[in-house]
């Protein structure tokens, strides 16, 4: 169910996209082929291809054709081009520089699965080049990046999907969870706990030459200049085939320079559902309290004092005061998932189960017809890409839009700032700034490295 503000925004964006197609907005670039003929099979390109990049591409070949890939690692690029041809029987062009993808007239939309520190620059430049955008979560590295993306979506009228796939889960557990809450099955919500798991630190990781085929300077991009680091031991299982301890492939999630640790990884999934359930998509917390936390290295003034080890939190318990005074607890302890507690009951949901007495009661007292669809805002799409393409055709925004995503991600970003500074933060969700703390507010943005500024 959309809030009035969300509905107004969507109506604006329909008007904005029509104006953009007519050339009434500066910097929107040429209209995509998808705008000109919405019944055609859209043409996509993927930027950033390891792991999740291929995952979202392979799920999307049912709905779209892929004309191009871009990745700064030649080995990753080559392997994925081969996989695509094997899967679809069609060849795509490969590039190291994503800007060559954005220059193509035949690409309707880009899917972005680079490390987090690249998301905003590529997303903004893609929209200004006339492309719709699907970008993996977490969308941003800082809160101010989120505000910039919102402004560019409004300016260009582009469709923008964020890859928080729990909003479009095929078994609908999370949608059913929100439907239970909206139907009053647990009464008024009194507490929400998001278990997102902890992390581990690392040994000292030496600086070495980057592997052949990897453009390390371009991989760093907007992030601060740094040495490539890795130990010989290799990762196995998911994300395997790269060093277990490194500041590059896969392990970049453990470094604040490129990501936000577990808080922005699993937190971007579960805090999203919790915020949605609380009806706080257009608001946010008023206070963030770091009850306990453990950092793997020493910090001074919010910055790690060494550069040779992982630096994001390994354990934590954060209390966020949400609208209505409802506490949202984000913890590294307990089961991975979300526990909703209300005046009339409680239940737990994650990707494997939806459990508790209110759930058991559905057998004799099912949800009203259409309750899940009401949460989703209409018929539930087959998957996230299908929802994205539907939104491209209608020129609306999809189920996981940039505004709701940024609002929930602000809670995660603020939690990380509170941990880094070791103190409670008061947040003004209307002004979207930290109250009375200039040092903390300095963490809402970060200057890009020279030569990698966003091209507006």
From TrEMBL:
Q: What is its EC number?
A: 1.1.1.18
Domain (Gfo/Idh/MocA-like oxidoreductase bacterial type C-terminal) ranges: 203-453
Keyword list (alphabetical) reads:
Oxidoreductase
Sorted alphabetically, which InterPro entries does this protein's record hold? Gfo/Idh/MocA-like_OxRdtase_N, Gfo/Idh/MocA_oxidrdct_glycsds, Gfo/Idh/MocA_OxRdtase_bact_C, NAD(P)-bd_dom_sf, TAT_signal
Q: Tell me which domain of life the UniProt entry assigns to the organism this sequence originates from.
A: Bacteria
| UniProt entry tagged with the keyword Nucleotidyltransferase | no
Give the GO molecular function terms.
Answer: inositol 2-dehydrogenase (NAD+) activity
Q: Which Gene3D superfamilies match?
A: Dihydrodipicolinate Reductase, domain 2, NAD(P)-binding Rossmann-like Domain
Transmembrane segment boundaries: none
One Pfam family, short name: GFO_IDH_MocA_C2
Q: Where is the Gfo/Idh/MocA-like oxidoreductase N-terminal domain?
A: 80-163
For the keyword Hydrolase, the answer is no
**Protein name, UniProt field:** Inositol 2-dehydrogenase/D-chiro-inositol 3-dehydrogenase
Q: Which organism is it from?
A: Alienimonas chondri
């Amino acid at each position: 169910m959309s809030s009035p503000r969300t509905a107004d925004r969507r109506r604006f964006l329909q008007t904005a996209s029509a104006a953009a197609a007519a050339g009434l907005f500066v910097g929107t670039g040429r209209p995509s082929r998808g705008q000109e003929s919405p019944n055609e099979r859209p043409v996509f390109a993927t930027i950033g291809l390891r792991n999740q990049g291929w995952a979202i591409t392979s799920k999307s070949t049912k709905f779209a054709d892929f004309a191009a890939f871009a990745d700064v690692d030649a080995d990753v690029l080559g392997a994925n081009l081969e996989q695509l041809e094997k899967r679809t029987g069609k060849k795509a062009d490969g590039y190291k520089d994503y800007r060559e993808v954005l220059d193509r007239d035949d690409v309707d939309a880009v899917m972005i699965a680079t490390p987090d520190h690249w998301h905003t620059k590529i997303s903004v430049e893609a929209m200004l080049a006339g492309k719709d955008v699907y970008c993996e979560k977490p969308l941003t590295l800082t809160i101010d990046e989120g505000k910039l993306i919102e402004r560019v979506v409004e300016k260009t009228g582009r469709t923008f999907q964020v890859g928080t796939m729990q909003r479009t889960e095929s078994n609908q557990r999370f949608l059913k969870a929100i439907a239970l809450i909206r139907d009053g099955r647990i009464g008024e919500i009194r507490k929400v706990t998001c278990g997102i798991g902890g992390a581990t630190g690392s040994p000292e990781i030496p600086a070495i030459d980057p592997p052949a085929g990897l453009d390390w300077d371009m991989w760093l991009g907007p992030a601060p200049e740094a040495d490539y680091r890795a130990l010989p031991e290799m990762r196995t299982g998911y994300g395997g085939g790269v060093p277990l301890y490194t500041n590059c492939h896969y392990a970049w999630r453990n470094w604040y320079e490129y990501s936000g640790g577990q808080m922005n990884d699993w937190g971007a999934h579960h805090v999203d559902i919790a915020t949605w359930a609380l009806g706080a998509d257009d608001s946010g917390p008023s206070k963030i309290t770091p009850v306990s936390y453990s950092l793997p290295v020493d910090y001074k003034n919010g910055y790690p004092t060494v550069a040779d080890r992982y630096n994001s939190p390994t354990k934590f318990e954060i209390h966020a005061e949400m609208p209505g005074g409802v506490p949202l607890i984000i913890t590294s302890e307990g089961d991975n998932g979300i526990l909703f507690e209300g005046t009339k009951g409680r239940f737990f949901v994650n990707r494997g189960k939806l459990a508790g007495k209110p759930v058991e009661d559905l057998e004799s007292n099912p949800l009203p017809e259409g309750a899940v669809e009401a949460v989703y805002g209409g018929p539930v799409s087959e998957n996230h890409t299908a929802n994205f393409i539907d939104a491209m055709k209608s020129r609306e925004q999809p189920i996981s839009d940039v505004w709701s995503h940024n609002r929930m991600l602000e809670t995660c970003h603020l939690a990380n700032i509170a941990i880094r500074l070791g103190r409670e933060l008061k947040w003004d969700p209307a002004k979207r700034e930290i109250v009375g703390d200039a040092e903390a507010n300095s963490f809402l943005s970060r200057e890009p490295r020279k030569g990698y500024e966003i091209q507006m």
